[in-house]
Structures are given as C-alpha cells and as structure tokens.
Amino acid sequence: MSLGLLVIGLNHSTAPVKVREQVTFPGDQEGRVTRDFADVPGVEEIMILSTCNRAEMICLSDDPEDTRERLIQAVGAKHGVDPESIRDFLYIREEADAVRHVFRVASSLDSMVLGEPQILGQVKEGYRRATVVGATGPILNRLLHRAFFTAKRVRSETGVGAAAVSVAYVAVELAKKILGDLQNKTVMLLGAGEMAELAARHLAGHVDKPVMVVNRTYETACVLAGQLCGCAAPMEKLEDSLVGADVVITSTGSCDPVIVAPGMKRVMKRRRYSPIFLIDIAIPRDVEPAVNDIDGVYLYNIDDLQAVVAENVGERRQEAIRAESIISQEVTKFMDWSRSLESAPTIVAFREKLEEIRTGELSRLNGKLSKLSPEDRQTVELITRSIINKIAHDPTAFLKKMGSRAKGSLYLDTAQRMFKLDGFSPDQEQEDEPAEQ
Fold first, then answer.
1. Which of 385-392's residues contact partners 24+ apart within 8 Å by CB, and which partners?
2. What is the pLDDT of residues 94-150, one digit of tens each?
3. Do residues 168 and 202 make contact, with C-beta atoms less than 8 angstroms apart?
4. Cα–Cα dist 426/23, whole Å
C-alpha cells in the first residue's frame, strides 16, 4: 500500500541564496499560506517548513505525481516566479525517502551546520501552524511526532549536537576570523529576532564595547540591548549607527533589503572609507548585493558561511554515522506502521463478523433467555462478549504484525477467504483458483 507521502523543497545544498529567497514563506504566523496550499487539488494533508536555509512542503496526496506538479505551479504563482526557473533546484522525496528526509531534517542532519538545535523548534512551529488551520491529519500527525521522538533520540544517544553551533554562531566565528580580537571593535546587530538573539549570545564574551542593536521596533531593540548591556537605536537611525560600527550582523524579517547601495555610499563617505564588515544571515537578504562593490565594504551572506561551517562540523561526522543508524531504525518502524494500516479494514471486518455471530445466536435463543432475570441477561452479555474478545485477540495481533510486513497482503487475503470477509464467497474462491489439469 502506498501512503502517498511527498516532500518538495529546496535548501542550502540544492539552491543558492538568490533562488532560496524567492520562495520563502515569511510571516505565515497564522498559517494562511499553509491553508492556501492545503486547498491545492490532490492534497490531503500538508505542512510548510520555511527557514533561512530551506523552504519545503511535506504533504500527503492520493495522487502524488499529479499533486507534485500542481504544488510546483502553486509555489510559482504564490511567489510570482516562473516555476521552470526553480524546478532544477528542487528535491522531491516520496514514501520511505520522504520519511527519512523529515527525520533527518528534524534531527539536524540536513542542516548547514550539522547538529544545530534551532531546526527542531522550526519544524515544531511549522507543524503547529499546520495543525491550527486543520491542514494535517492522522498520517502527518504520526510522522511529525515520530520525527520529534527521533530527534530526541539522536540528541540524547549521540554527540552530534555536542557544543552545538548555529548559523549565528558561525557568523560570530567569521567576524573573529576577519578581525581577530573583537574586544575593541564595535559590533552592531541589525534585527532583534531569533537569529540576532543567538548571535548576541555568542558575542557576549567577545566584546568590551557596548553592542548596538538596531531594529524596526525600538522597544524590542531596547529589550535585547538591555540583555547585552548594550545600546539601542531605531531603524530611522540606521545610517548613523553604521557610521560607528566595525562589524554588522544582520538578521531582520524584512522582505526587502534594509541596507542598500545609495545609503551605504553616504555611510562610507562619513566613515572616510574605514573598513566595515557586513555579515548578512537573513533570508531574504538584508543587504543589497551591490553594497559589496563599494570601497571599504566587505559583505558576506549566508552562503559564504559554509566554509566556516565545514571546519566546525568535522568532529561531528563520526557521531552523525550513529545518528543515521537511529534514523534508519525509526524509518523502518514508521513504514511498518504505515503498512499495518492496510490490515485495519480486515481486522474490523473480522471483529464485526464475530459480533454478528454473537448477537445472532443470542437472538436465536431469545425465547429461552427471556426467562432469565435482567441481571442474568446482563451476565450472559458480558460472558459472550468476553469469549468473542478472547477468540479475536490472537488473530487480531497476528494480522497487525503480519500486515506490516512485505508479504502482509498474502496473510490478509487468507484471513478474508478463511472467514469469508468483505463479501467473499466460496464461489469466488473457485473462480480465483486455477482449475486442476
């Protein structure tokens, strides 16, 4: 039996940042975008996962091949891009491969920074939004809960997350590599979201000067600056703040560049072209690429961090092998469960037939049983139900177990023939079996 499980997406491994930023799903806090995709014909269940490094849809469909194409077209329409321009960057996973992909993503084995802990929270948030708008069902619910369980196993049973790093951590490491000691440098955070907070935590022990925090919501900037014993500035003062900064780490939720070439030219003139390092870890990008052409400006985006990432993950690769083994175990368990779903109708029909026999016999003996007191009639009901349950227990357990195996359909077919379930009759059996020669 095919589940119809499908994953379509792109990530840091398959698409450059200029492609990824075209198909992000920012600001879908209410799940409206998820709901829109849930209405695509053929989609039975769906959730969207959108992070700095990936945008993907996990869905269940009664016709995965047709639904796959409809979803690609829907992504193009939603973002106003030609689907053909992104098709070559997409990965498509189905069935067990889709299960493995989801488990690897949740366990941070598919992240730019192997073992980074933020992705699990992002997967949970995407799942939460999908459940709020009713876009998930029994299959995705089971899949995501097993993904969370698998991620917990990987985290607790391996060292893949030991001294876990994040993109924000790597950004700080890059700043240190570029400038050396950051203690006498002025660092500015542009944005006060999750990634900016992570960068701030990593920066805390490396700078002596107050960290500047600039954010569109000034009150939010003040809160983060207070945690860092730093100072805050509103977005209107961005150019003034840039004049006094040595390193700028940007991570806003803006859909458009916040630092653009004309404004940066004014800043550099005021700085007398003193070097400034801009590390843009936002998707979509906060800094216009043309800014890198200005004298004295050194711009690094999220793709540039991969070289630093490679250094940080080397020691985790051995642990990742153990993690992959755990994931393989959990994929097998999930696929066994999915195949066991095929046995459910047969088990239901079997138990219904036993109940039909039980009630039929009680009805046939109703004349004799009518002489019993109500209490005795209730006792007979309980005894006969107990007998039926005990008779059904072992066959039910057997069908559940064997139904999850590769040849489970053979056992189900035998049970249907043996107990004449689902309308099966002896005449059909003679028709199905080849005549003896």
1. 385/358, 387/358, 388/351, 388/354, 388/355, 388/358, 391/354, 392/350, 392/351, 392/354
2. 999 999 999 999 999 998 877 888 899 999 999 999 999 999 988 899 999 999 999
3. yes
4. 58
Q: Could you tell me which of 12, 25, 61, 15 has the C-alpha nearest to residue 41?
A: 61
Q: Which amino acid is at 15?
A: A
| Predicted TM-score (pTM) above 0.85 | no
Q: Other CB atoms closer than 10 Å to residue 26's CB: what's the count?
A: 14
Helical spans, DSSP H, in 204-316: 218-227, 238-243, 261-270, 306-313
pLDDT tens digits along 152-187: 999 999 988 775 456 667 777 777 777 778 888 888
Residue with tokens 């379509």: 8
The pLDDT confidence band at residue 408, using thresholds 50, 70 and 90, is low
Measured distance CA(105)–CA(146) in Å, rounded: 12
The two structure tokens encoding residue 232: 């805050």
Residue given tokens 């995501």 in the structure block: 144
Which residues are the active-site residues?
52
